[in-house]
């Protein structure tokens, strides 16, 4: 049976690698993006040129109306929803908590916590056997920051990812008997553009010496873990937090 997957923040970095990998694995793919339509279009072109089916849908993860439109578009244009990857997230410039503004905190938590919650809610409504669905998989992209706390830089980001870890554990138990598996992948420092958006484009190079493997990770290495969780090979795995951190 053909199934579709929504990858939030799927136009760049880890999300891009996940979207391309999911298409290769046989999913019809919805690439969600916030602003960069060109980057999303490139991902769609790559998937289509390889024989896959994909669409790009703009939706701001801080706006419930956008999220509802995202899921409704998939309902009408792709195969029944079988998976959700909550990948979209933001960081901000490094800062101590004492200097963080309310606006920064509200934006961080709206994007990194509320958005994934709303997406998970809509996915459960469609995939749960209690609602007539055929089951499915939710994979949340967390961060090693949830373990480390990111003092002096991103305590707000780390806290948002800690919330995602707890959501993963609770939701997994809530819907396990309804045919839905829920897991999280916690990347370490990965070569993506998110560091530049936080004002630290060289962050991986600066911190890779702290990683036991002495290198940063690649988006495809995170995607491989996500794709395993999306597959039947992980059919007895739910409520797990999988670290892909180079040993950190």
UniProtKB/TrEMBL annotation:
Q: Which SUPFAM superfamilies match?
A: NAD(P)-binding Rossmann-fold domains
User: Keyword set for this entry?
Assistant: Oxidoreductase
Q: Name one GO molecular function term.
A: oxidoreductase activity, acting on CH-OH group of donors
The UniProt entry, under InterPro entries, shows: NAD(P)-bd_dom_sf (IPR036291), Sc_DH/Rdtase_CS (IPR020904), SDR_fam (IPR002347)
Write out the similarity annotation. Answer: Belongs to the short-chain dehydrogenases/reductases (SDR) family.
Q: Which PANTHER family match?
A: NADPH-DEPENDENT ALDEHYDE REDUCTASE-LIKE PROTEIN, CHLOROPLASTIC-RELATED, RE15974P
Its protein name is SDR family oxidoreductase
Give the organism's phylogenetic lineage. Answer: Bacteria, Pseudomonadati, Pseudomonadota, Alphaproteobacteria, Sneathiellales
